[in-house]
Each structure stands twice: as C-alpha cells, then as structure tokens.
Amino acid sequence: MTTETSPMADEKRSLYGSLWRAFPRDVGYLALTGVLALVAGSLYGTAGSMVSGFGDALGSLVLFAILVLAALYLAKQFGRLEILRLGWAREPAPRPVVWRRLTATNRFVRLLEVAADPHYWLYLLYLAVVFPILGGFVVGLIGSVVFGGMAGIAVGIVLLVARADPGSDLWRALTQQPWFFDNLRLFGAVSVVLGLALLALLPLLTRGGVKLMGAVARPLLGGFRSEQLQAEVAGLEVSRSAAVSAEGTALRRLERDIHDGPQQRLIRIQMDLAAASRAVDTDVVRGKALIEEAIQQSRDALEELRALSRGFAPPLLLDRGLAAALDAVVDRSTVATRFTDELPEGVRIPVEIERNAYFIAAELLTNVAKHSGAGRAELILSAPVLGGSRELVVVVTDDGAGGATVSDGHGLAGIEQRLTGLGGTLELRSPAGGPTHVAVRIPVTPPAGEGGAEGEPDGERDPAEVPEADAVPETAPEAAAPTRDSAS
After folding, report:
1. 8 Å CB contact between 422 and 442
2. What SUPFAM superfamilies does its record include (predicted)?
C-alpha cells in the first residue's frame, strides 16, 4: 500500500527547505548588519563629542557642516556596500542611480555640489537613521528569539533530568506550589518543545528580516523612476539616430556603387550598340566585335547588379529562413568556411532580426575574404536564452593575420553602428598574427517562443514561415548540430 502526499504539502516542505538553505547566507547578512549598526552608533557618539568639544558656537557650526559633508560622501559608499550585501543575500537590486554630474571647475565648489543631489541625502538618511534603527530592531528581535529558544531548551532539560532536593531553598519554594512540583517533568517537556519551536522559526525570521531590510533599502538607495525613463529615452534616441545613420550610409553607398558600376556599363553598352548599328552595313567585322563587347559588358553589369543585390534581403531568407540563407552565403564564400547551425528546433526569429543578422554575417565573411588572408573560417549561428530572454548570436572566426579593429568608415564600424540601432553588441578579439574572433549578439524582441504563436496549435503554421529545420524529424538530443563546409 502506498501513501500519496498532496501537492500543497510538498510545496510547504520545499519552501521550508529553501528557507533553511538560505539560512547561512541570511545569518551572515544579519550578523554584519548588527556589527555595522554598532559602528554607526559609535560614529554618532564620536561626532557628538567632537561638536560638543568646541566651546565656540561658530566653530561648532563649521565643524558640524564639515561632518555633514563628509557624511554625505560616506553615505554614498555605504549605500553601494549595502546594495552589494543585498545582492549577496539574493535580494532584488534597486533601480540604478543617476548621480549628478559635478560640473564646477573649483575643487571646493565641486565638493559642495553633492549637496544639490537628492540621492546623497537619501543615502545619508538610510545610513544615519533607517539602517541603525531598523537593523538594530531586526537583529535584536532575532537575537531574542535565539536566546529564548536556547533558554527554553536549557530550562526544560534541567527540569527533566534534575532531582528535587527538599533541603534546597529552590525546591522548598517549589514545594509550596504543588501543581508545579507534581508536574515537573511535564513542564520540562513543554519548555523543551517551546524552545525547539522558537529555533524552528529562525529561518523564517531571518529571511523575513532580510526581506524587510531590502524592501526599505530599495526606495532609498535606488534611482527615481523619472531618471530611468530619461535614460531609456536617451538610449532610444541614440539607437534611432544610429539606425537612421546606418540606413542613410547604406543608401548613399548603394547609390554610389550603382552610379559608378552598372550605370556606367549600361551607358557603354548603349554606345557600343549604337556604333555596331552604324557599322553593321559597312564593316561587318567591326560591328560583330562591338556586339560581342556589348554582350560582355552586359554580363559584367549583371554580375555587379547581383553583387549589389546582396544588400537586399534575398528571397531565400524570406522563404526558408536565416539558416538556409546563410548556407547560401557560405557557398559563395571564396574562403573555405564551415557553417554550424545551432538554432533550437521551432525557434522563430522576427523577420527584421533575421534580415539584419543576414547582412551582418555576409559583411563579416566578406571582410574575411578581402582583408584577413585566412585559409579557413567558421560561421556559427545560435539563439541561447540568457537572463530569461533570448538573443541571436552570430560568431565568425578565421585563421588569418588578425589585427582587425573597429575604425570609422570600415566594415566593422558599420556593423557596430547597425547593432547600436538594434540594441545589440559586437565582441572583437583579433590579436596580431590571428586568429580573429567576432561575436555579434542581437536581443530578440519579443523573446522567441519554443513553438507556435500563442493560440496557434503546433503543426498548423504557414509552411512559408517554418524554417527548413522544422521539416526534419526530431532526432535524439545528443545529435550534433548540422554543419556545412564550403571551399572554393
């Protein structure tokens, strides 16, 4: 016969177990809190004695102002330490603080500028008032519970194992209370149980104390919501400017390339055909040569147009997805390139993210072919989940000469500018002598789901939206990611 436990009971046991697992960390935080509260109290006494030691009222006022100014700087450092301690205790971090920029050229005035920043005063309020009182209360309460629990256990043990000595004053006094003397063992057992119960509450109290300290510290040590909104607006403005600049640069470059390349060839073809038309009746050989030259010019113009069209999203990207489009890019590469597709099954990347990732990967492989002198390269495409959100990662490595840098007007600078508009990052490692490692990370917004869209059953998506990998039957989890080698 088997017994089943309810899910609620399992959840309670799991919660209590997690409290005990966090108990050492909570105790460490609260123990240091008690020490810092004592230090803050001693600083009160020291500052008070220093101010009262001045007989001159003006001197006392000047000293008090100096101490307040020093306390503002000290409070800032203490607040940062408290944020680190709360993070170590697994408490959510407060909003980042936007500190006031010190703009004065005079050093003395710069020291006084901190008084205009409200965050300094909030930090001082936390250091001078909130932390000593609240920390002392929490530590004192938990210390009282510990003392009460240990005392209850000790008294209970004494009552359980001690023998009454009728000659002692203690037992003589107890015998005057027959109800207590007759139930001595019972009171001992109750005392032990109460002491154990108090100690059993310790992880709940310590976790509650840490939670209380964090809840009070976050509004005082954190930034204002208005500051966060201003920072977000500034970031969006930078991203928008970068995106507009990147698109404008790309359009100007495309216009210049068309003007200098295919347009000139088409004009040459027009002139050759006109000359051939005039010469066909008088000089057949020359007319035929001009026509052959026009045909070759048309081939060259077609090749240039194909090269320029790579700046637009290819149909393959829209029809079969990013992995298939990059596979085609690898096929065209003049450097032997290995392509590894590590995208999880069923992950759907927004079209704009795929489009930008395609151009970035193509640009990186073009840089490898033009500048690196590499014999082999590798392209890795993945979409890991970090911090609860998914990001698209494109990694390109080569065994070339190295020394790549992000310089204005070059390909990597254009990629970095494009990534700024996408909220992405570029990581470059290219020591002299190689190898070169470039990692591009683009946040996926909204985060990609592991399957169909909300309200859309699996297996009923539009075939045009399903990457080619979705049509492959599911294999064992340990199967290697698909790779593709291209050598020209």
Report:
1. yes
2. ATPase domain of HSP90 chaperone/DNA topoisomerase II/histidine kinase
